[in-house]
Fold this sequence. Notes:
By secondary structure, this protein is an alpha+beta fold.
Amino acid sequence: xDDSPLMSIQPYFVLDSDDFCQRLLFENGISHFFSFSNKTxxxxxxxxxxxxxxxLLFEYKDGTVRxxxxxxxxxxxxxxxxKGAEYFGVRLAPGCAFSIPxxxxxxxxxxxxxxxxxxxxxxxxxxxxxxxxxxxxxxxxLQEFPxxxxxxxKSGEKQKLFNQISGIIIRNRGKVRVKDLExxxxxxxxxxxxxxxxxxxxxxxxxxxSVKRQxxxxxxxxxxxxxxxxxASEYDFYDQSHFIRExxxxxxxxxxxxxxxxxxxxxxxxxxxV
Length: 274
C-alpha cells in the first residue's frame, strides 16, 4: 500500500493557461491551492477530467471577484477561463465535499454554483474578493472556510467510517474492490454506498475509479510513460486495449498521445511550487 498523499490535479489548468503556481497542503480536506491567469485576448475553454474532485475557483477581473464552486466532476465537462482574468483555486482532496445549505451532495455533482450569488456565502466571497495576492488569499480562505462549510467539529460514526474507507481507497491507489471494503470495514456494500452518497454524492466504486485515474495520471506526469504497458498492468487493466479505451474515455485522448502532450508542453516546467 502507498501512504503518500494523492496529489489530484486538473492538468489542463497547467497546460493551457498562464503563470500556474501551487502550494500543497494535504490538510483539512484540501489538496492544494493554485493560481493561474489568461493573458490572451480571448476566453479559453478548458476540459475538466472526470476525477471526482471539487474545486473552488475565484475569478478576479476588473476589480471584482466571481466565485465558482465546481462540484465533483464525474462526467467530462469544460470550464470557461475569461480573457484578462486571474484565478485563485482551492482543490479539495478526493472524497471531500463542500456543502451548500439545502442542497444534497448528490445534487452538486457535476454542477457549477456561483457562490457570491448565494446568501450563505456572500460575506465569505466579499472577504476573498478583497485579497490581492496568493498568500493573503490562502490565509483568508483558511480563516473563513471551515465555519462556512461546517467542517468545524465534524465527527460521528458515519463520518469516521467514511474517512476510514476513503483512506483505504487512497492508500491502495484506487485498486480495491467493494467486496474487499466490506471485509475491511465490517459493513455491507449497500451501507457503505449510502454513506458515500450522503457525504460526496457518488458511489464508493466511482471513488475508486477516480482515485485510480489520478494516480495513473501522476505516474505519467512523473515520467513513467516510457512503459505504458507496465502502467496498464500496474493498474489492473485486463489488457492494453482496455487501458486505452478507459483512458480515452477519461481524458479524450489515448495514453501515448496524452504522454506526448505532457512531454512537448513541458508540464513539470509549467508548474511553479511556492
